[in-house]
């Protein structure tokens, strides 16, 4: 018995030592594997300079700094990294700001998704905006002959809402104040809902969303909109599926022909209508008001622009046509310069990498990375636009007088230095509609009204939050009926 105990102890000790050695060896092997994998992962991470982190150490403060000073930061870093990409922390996550030189390389890259980027920024799962795969009314009052103070923003917001309803939905919807008011209010709700959610970390948003007043407001608007769309689809069904309007509206196109099977999907049809409202009303009305604010600051151009409208209409029999609008090259130039100086987005060419991408300069872009171009900074680059901070309403008009330039440098042009509408295969298709709407409104305004700033008042300053730019909705100008 006594001889067995030491033996047992020796055996147990041996087993214990072997277990210890085995565990140590396993740990070393696993550690080596982990470090090897980690090394590979780290080597494939995004590696671009993040200059704001050099100035602001706290992540949340960096995001807030970008939200409050996006233009200033983009301008500064554009000059510093003009030929290289750089990263910046935003409320939408880290975004890579691309150099202009990369636009041709990436404009149609199959691994870069415009839709994924928009869905991410719009918080589609909450706001309902995004997530869609590819597929004459009076609002201005009768002004007296004397100069009258007016805030143009709301008038043109309403006018564009009516125009959009007629084009996207139906004539009945355009004449229905409940629908136009709903589409206008939903634009604001969607923007405010997204902005409120972005103040919270992504992992808290599903919980926080239920307590935000914007969510409840969105649900109320959605319920009202569904009833109106249901009524329109019932009318269409009673017509045997025929278009509600001639020419057909967007609702007609998206519920007929190859899309006939979607006519009964009221939630989809409402989603399409609300998405189109957000996309069309806000941008077009803002651009139109910017055009007028620029004219109020430079009223000496009024007669020259008006005369062009008069002459073109005389040659077209007094009728606005697609061709007659195209002949209004001075109006087009004015609109283009206003867009350059007051672009509604400081960045365009938004993309998200769905697969890893390596740029020609060797920069590695991991899947999930969001990218954009610093369009506003490019718009004020003196090497591209001489005297870029001066508003020159005839800038592109003069360019189009040069040989071979008649059809270039227009309001809807998209080139590697004209990025207001984006670039590549996802350049904004709605720019052609916006062009027609703004020219019609601008021409009618010139024919019937005069505008100027209040005495001593400078050009209205824009309202900026993050990369979004709006004309000041509270700004007053003086308007009177034109004396003929």
From TrEMBL:
UniProtKB keywords: Heme, Iron, Metal-binding, Monooxygenase, Oxidoreductase
Record's keyword annotation contains Iron: yes
Cofactors: heme
PROSITE patterns xref list: CYTOCHROME_P450
Superkingdom of source: Eukaryota
Keyword Iron in annotation: yes
Pfam families reported in the protein's UniProt record: p450
GO molecular function: heme binding; iron ion binding; monooxygenase activity; oxidoreductase activity, acting on paired donors, with incorporation or reduction of molecular oxygen
Assigned protein family: Belongs to the cytochrome P450 family.
Protein name: Cytochrome P450
């Amino acid at each position: 018995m006594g001889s067995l105990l030491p033996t047992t102890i020796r055996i147990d000790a041996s087993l214990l030592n072997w277990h210890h050695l085995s565990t140590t060896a396993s740990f070393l092997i696993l550690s080596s594997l982990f470090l090897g994998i980690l090394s590979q992962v780290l080597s494939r991470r995004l590696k671009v300079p993040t200059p704001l982190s050099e100035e602001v150490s706290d992540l949340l403060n960096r995001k807030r700094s970008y939200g409050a000073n996006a233009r200033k930061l983009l301008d500064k870093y554009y000059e510093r990294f003009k030929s290289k990409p750089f990263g910046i922390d935003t409320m939408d996550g880290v975004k890579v700001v691309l150099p202009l030189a990369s636009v041709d390389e990436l404009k149609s890259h199959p691994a870069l998704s415009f839709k994924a980027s928009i869905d991410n920024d719009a918080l589609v799962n909450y706001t309902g905006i995004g997530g869609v795969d590819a597929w004459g009314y009076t609002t201005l009052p009768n002004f007296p002959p004397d100069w009258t103070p007016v805030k143009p923003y709301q008038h043109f917001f309403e006018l564009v809402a009516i125009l959009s309803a007629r084009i996207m939905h139906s004539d009945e919807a355009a004449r229905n104040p409940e629908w136009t008011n709903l589409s206008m209010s939903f634009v604001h709700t969607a923007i405010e809902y997204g902005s409120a959610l972005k103040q919270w970390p992504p992992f808290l948003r599903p919980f926080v969303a239920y307590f935000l007043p914007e969510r409840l407001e969105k649900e109320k608007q959605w319920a009202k909109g569904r009833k109106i769309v249901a009524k329109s689809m019932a009318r269409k069904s009673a017509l045997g599926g025929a278009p509600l309007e001639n020419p057909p509206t967007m609702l007609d196109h998206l519920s007929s022909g190859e899309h006939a099977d979607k006519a009964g999907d009221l939630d989809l049809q409402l989603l399409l209508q609300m998405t189109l409202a957000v996309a069309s009303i806000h941008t077009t009305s803002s651009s139109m008001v910017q055009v007028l604010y620029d004219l109020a600051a430079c009223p000496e151009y009024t007669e020259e622009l008006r005369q062009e409208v008069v002459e073109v209409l005389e040659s077209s029999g007094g009728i606005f046509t697609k061709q007659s609008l195209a002949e209004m090259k001075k109006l087009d130039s004015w609109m283009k310069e206003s867009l350059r100086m007051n672009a509604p987005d400081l960045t365009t060419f938004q993309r998200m990498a769905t697969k890893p991408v390596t740029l020609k300069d060797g920069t590695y872009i991991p899947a999930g990375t969001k990218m954009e171009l610093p369009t506003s900074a490019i718009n004020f680059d003196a090497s591209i636009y001489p005297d870029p901070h001066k508003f020159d309403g005839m800038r592109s008009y003069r360019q189009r007088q040069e040989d071979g330039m008649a059809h270039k440098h227009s309001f809807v042009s998209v080139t590697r230095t004209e990025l207001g509408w984006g670039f590549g295969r996802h350049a904004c298709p709605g720019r052609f509609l916006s062009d027609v709407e703004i020219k019609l409104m601008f021409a009618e305004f010139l024919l019937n009204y005069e505008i100027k700033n209040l005495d001593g008042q400078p050009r209205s300053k824009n309202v900026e939050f993050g990369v979004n730019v709006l004309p000041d909705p509270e700004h007053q100008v003086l308007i009177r009926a034109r004396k003929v």
